[in-house]
Amino acid sequence: MKSSRIEAFKTQVELTLLLELDIRSHNENDPVEVKAVPDNWTVMGNGNYAVVFAHADFPNLVVKVYAQGRPGLQDEAEVYRRLGRHPSFSECYYVGEAYLIMKRMPGYTLYDCLLTGIPIPPSVIRDVDEALAYAMKKGMSPRDIHGKNVMNDNGKGYVVDVSDFLLRGSDGIWEDFKRAYHWLYKPVLMRWTLPLPARLLEWCRKGYRFYRRSRKK
Fold first, then answer.
1. Can you tell me where the transmembrane regions are (predicted)?
2. Are 93 and 60 found together in one domain?
3. SS3 of residue 64 by DSSP
């Protein structure tokens, strides 16, 4: 990526996006709420600590803006430094005070695939498994890998959130996702690839969170 494009994007982030943006994190277990976004900016995804935005004039870049008071920016930047270049991970081009400028990855999140009925082939799962194994060889512990943090681009899998990779130990989320994929999605849902209601997916998200809390007790 040319440094001039990154610098131009950085200017847009600081002079338009950050000046007019209104995002709020009410609970660390729920996605950040986006209250206002300036023109030409689009929300690409919102996690529990940060929101990712794209600009119409910069199709190959995104910016991840952390909500006020939420940690993790410097850790995420360090993870990308350790990962270097890998086909299934993004790259971090610039670290701002409250944001990261990164390479935009193509495709749709697995959550959006379920929402719209886009098939998720086994190759996506294999790509993610290989990417996570690579991260572990680099001395990190991949965590928080789920349907909103993995993308599917015509059968190619990408991991798009690495913010928790410096924490120690496995949280088992990706293994649980794979079990659901092999036991339910692949033999049943993949045959028809029908779109699933957003309310059902949200119910599954909250139900899984409750299950994980109960399992820890």
1. none
2. yes
3. strand
Cα 173 → chain centroid: 14
Looking at 103, 138, 168, which one is the last position of a domain?
103
Q: What is the DSSP letter of 16?
A: I
Tell me if 80 sits within 8 A of 155, measured CB to CB: no
pTM: 0.88
Domain boundary among 80, 103, 126: 103
Q: Is 198 helix (H, G, I), strand (E, B) or coil?
A: helix
C-alpha pair distances (Å), 142 with each of 48, 60, 62, 98, 212: 17, 25, 22, 23, 17
Q: Are residues 173 and 198 in the same domain?
A: yes
Beta strand 108-109 with 33-36 is unpaired
pLDDT digits (tens, 9 = 90+) for 141-161: 999 999 999 999 999 999 999
